[in-house]
Description:
By secondary structure, the protein is an alpha+beta fold. 38% of the residues lie in helices and 18% in strands. Strands 5, 6, 7, 8, 9, 10, 11 and 12 form an 8-stranded mixed beta sheet that branches. A two-stranded antiparallel sheet has the order 1-2. A hairpin with a 2-residue loop joins strand 3 (129-130) and strand 4 (133-134). It is globular, with a radius of gyration of 21 Å.
Amino acid sequence: MGLKGNFVDVPTDCPQRDERLGWTGDAQIFCRTASYLMQTRNFFAKWLADLRYDQTPEGAVPHVVPDILTGKSDNDLNLTNGGTVAAAAWADAAVINPWTMYLMYGDRETLRQQYASMKGWVDFMRNHAVDNQWRYKLQFGDWVALDAREGSYFGATPDDLICMAYFALSTLLFAKAAKALGEEDDYQHYFALHQAIVESFQREFFTATGRLAVRTQTAHILALYFNLLPEAYRAKTVAGLLELLAEHDGHLVTGFVGTPYFCHALSENGQVDAAWQLLLKDDFPSWLYQVKAGATTIWEHWDGVKPDGTMWSPDMNSFNHYAYGAIGEWLYRAAAGINTREDEPGFKHSILRPLPGGGLEWLKARYSSVYGDICVHWQQEAQTVTLELDIPANTRSTLILDGARTLLDANGIAFAPMDGGYSAEVGSGHYRVIFLRENR
């Protein structure tokens, strides 16, 4: 409902009050979830063209597209003093959204149309960077995170870390886009730039003993999910994130930057159960706390309505603000396991790697790809998992049984053992597999 209420010509952040604008951060955060829920290729292709036309000659991307803030924000102290363009995680919509269209739909045309825009934004960051560290005027940071100072919108994770993390991510995605379009010189140049940014990030934010110097959940999430850390420090960083989670009794305190990747950072680093536990929390603050409070759309603030019934704020408090609904991507891509390959995008070659858990008895998911419906249905009873799959015609899949210990019924599929389970290559059709899962 949040998507339908906001995706009307432009991806507005909320359908009420004075904002109701095409905020780039919200659109970037929610883009992949939206693309699992509905066919968004044409919608985002049009909006990205708007973004391209609103981009400054230097490559800066406005906070909102269409840009109706520049020159018209005298009543907003932050925007008047800090400007209306070039905020990390917001402006990165210029790169992340066209790359997402490529992944979800195999859409090379939007990638080609936006190529100069993508390059312009990456170059803007590079041109404002010293030792690959950049920032520019107003930064929203980990917007409305709960670890912010009382009364502040700005989370505790330093802007410098967020700017650098997104500089690395957008540079890498642009390098991949260059490779997908056959721009080999750009691929080599920007991939090398990405490596240099990561090395600078590690020097700046990791201690000699491998500890991340910034003790926030979001800092650890970005380091893990964006692969900004030395591999030797991964276990310590995961332990640090779990420690920060435990300090809040298993609750998140992340904002717009950290929340979309929290469950991914856990499940991709051997903490599937922790990801499920985070998802299924139903006391304050959590996704299901909102549901129990009667919400039918996602709130802008975790504490939009507090447990005592008071409001975070009566003047900036939307109850239809889809950004935190980005958890939907984890449900599709991790819990149901429906993913695509970068070298065969648009689900021409899907990766099916479901992650049963959370004490759920079953999960059913269907994604309507450009080739047809991909369906995943898993049931679990104790350690026995029954998995049913539908793979559309003219496609194939890599099927991964994560955590499988013993195959009880392989349905004639030639599975091969792998680290942590079994895998197989399968063509289109219907499959039913039963296996025993390892204790986790």
